[in-house]
């Protein structure tokens, strides 16, 4: 997925930090479903949809709702008329969102590449950049967070249930019980292997 943004810069919401190196982009986007949200804080349809998208994203990634954040990343591609308008809109959105900097002509390239003619639009991409859904606005409205399961299967993401979470900004916080769950998993797995080994020895 980082190949889509090679040589480009993304900004971290509500901060001045930039994600611009190939390594940083790789860590931010690897093994995740990517949502490209094309919108504007001044568009009436976008103002109606934005709270829905915010809630959708938070319910999949915020520790208030889920123990482990889903493998999901969102990049805001704005049609705001001024940088102040873009910044004001982003301040009301989740901190985990990324954004194409205001004034970057790459926004137009993305619109052309994915055939975005009107907003709001949410393009859903696999980690390899292939399109899963051309515009998921209606699906997000109708189905809500459960539709992520379909995208996850289509994206063929690697299951990270027993892997350490990797977040490019290292802001995500795992539950304090995670190490115990991983240890329990290892212990149970080891016991099963020993039992299987004794059973096989007895059969011989």
Question: Mind sketching the topology for me?
Answer:
Blueprint (H helix, E strand, L loop, with lengths): L9 E3 L5 E2 L2 H8 L3 E7 L4 H18 L10 E7 L4 H9 L6 E2 L6 H8 L7 E5 L5 E3 L3 H7 L3 H9 L22 H26 L1
Parallel strand pairs: 3-4, 4-5
Antiparallel strand pairs: 1-2, 1-5, 3-6, 6-7
Task: Provide tags for this entry.
single chain; alpha/beta; 204 residues; Glutaredoxin; 7-stranded mixed β-sheet; globular
Overview of this protein structure:
This protein is of the alpha/beta class. Helix content is 42%, strand content 14%. It is built from seven helices and seven strands. The protein has a seven-stranded mixed sheet with strand order 2-1-5-4-3-6-7, with helices on both faces. The chain is globular, with a radius of gyration of 20 Å.
The top level CATH class name of the largest domain: Alpha Beta
C-alpha Rg (nearest Å): 20 Å
By CATH, the superfamily of the largest domain comes out as Glutaredoxin
Series of H and E elements: EEHEHEHEHEEHHH
Amino- and carboxy-terminal Cα gap: 51 Å
Number of helices: 7
The SS-based structural class is: alpha/beta
Q: Would you count the extended β strands for me?
A: 7
Strand portion, in percent? Answer: 5-15%
Helical residues, percent: 40-55%
Query: What average pLDDT do the residues reach?
Result: 82
Q: How many distinct folded domains?
A: 2
In one word, what is the shape? globular
Uncertain ranges: 162-187
At the fold tier of CATH, the topology name of the largest domain is Glutaredoxin
Quick one: biggest sheet? 7 strands, mixed
Based on the coordinates given, report the CATH architecture of the largest domain: 3-Layer(aba) Sandwich
């Amino acid at each position: 997925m980082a190949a889509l943004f090679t040589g480009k810069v993304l900004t971290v919401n509500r901060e001045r930090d930039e994600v611009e190196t190939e390594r940083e982009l790789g860590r931010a986007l690897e093994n995740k479903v990517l949502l490209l949200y094309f919108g504007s804080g001044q568009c009436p349809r976008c103002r109606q949809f934005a709270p829905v998208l915010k809630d959708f994203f938070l319910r999949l990634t915020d520790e208030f709702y889920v123990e482990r954040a889903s493998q999901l990343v969102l990049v805001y591609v704005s049609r705001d008329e001024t940088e102040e308008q873009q910044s004001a809109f982003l301040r009301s959105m989740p901190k985990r969102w990324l954004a194409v900097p205001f004034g970057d002509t790459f926004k137009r390239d993305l619109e052309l590449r994915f055939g975005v003619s009107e907003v709001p639009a949410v393009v859903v991409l696999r980690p390899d950049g292939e399109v899963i859904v051309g515009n998921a606005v209606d699906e997000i409205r109708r189905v809500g967070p459960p539709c992520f399961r379909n995208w996850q299967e289509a994206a063929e993401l690697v299951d990270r249930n027993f892997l350490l979470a990797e977040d490019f900004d290292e802001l995500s916080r795992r539950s304090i019980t995670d190490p115990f769950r991983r240890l329990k998993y290892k212990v149970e797995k080891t016991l099963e292997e020993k039992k299987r080994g004794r059973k096989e020895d007895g059969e011989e």
